[in-house]
Amino acid sequence: MSDPLTPRRSLMASLRSSFLTGLVVVLPIALTIYLIWAVIGYLDGWILPLIPEAYHPQELTQMIFGPGHSFPIRGVGVVVFLVFTTLMGWVAKGLIGRTVLVRLDRLVDRMPVVRSVYSALKQVAETVFNKSEASFEKCCLVEFPRPGVWTLGLISSRPKGEIAEKLGPDTIAVFIGLTPFTSGFVVFVRREDTIPLNLSPEDAAKLVASGGLVYPQTREATLPQA
After folding, report:
1. pTM for this model (two decimals)
2. Host H or E run for residue 101
3. Terminal-to-terminal C-alpha distance of the chain
4. CA 147 to CA 150: how far, in whole Å?
5. CATH 1.10.260 matches 138-209
6. Half-sphere exposure of residue 14, counting CA atoms within 13 Å on the CB side?
7. Segments in the chain below pLDDT 50
8. What is the C-alpha to C-alpha distance for residues 127 and 173, in angstroms, rounded to an integer?
């Protein structure tokens, strides 16, 4: 005799499977849209107060569509930020801009606390956005935090200055990110003590941020048919 609960269980299992499949499809899209929307709103909330109130989107839409028809428009702060940043970069390339930057650096160097923060942020920005230097182009495995335990790391650069003199020319700097890849460690190890990988920095960041759940897709070699 068949169990009357079997069809109901099969229906619930099918619904649960469909729900999980839909969640896998919808969740990444929803989170991506939410993050983009949140970043745009953050930039608008930071930049719009610096713009005269007469040029706010609510005031402009009220002027165009009449009183009582004003509504907020997101993205104006992003546009202003992009235009302002591009304009500042164009000015900084000129003679006047370089002169102003040199005087600004000299002025900041006279401030005890501000100069440390400013110099550190400037070096990080120049390293990250300078395309002439290789930054995080290779990945490797390094024994950390103890021998026998391997950790995924990003090779940043060769040590310079006093660190290079003390550790030798074969030492490299490796950045080890922590899940969810918001912080990490910088370790100096010998190159022969690492295992180089063919992973890209983007795939390595996904692997660390997901806690080892998302591995890069590898293409399987196709065998010739008989």
Report:
1. 0.53
2. helix 95-109
3. 50
4. 8
5. no
6. 6
7. 1, 219-226
8. 14
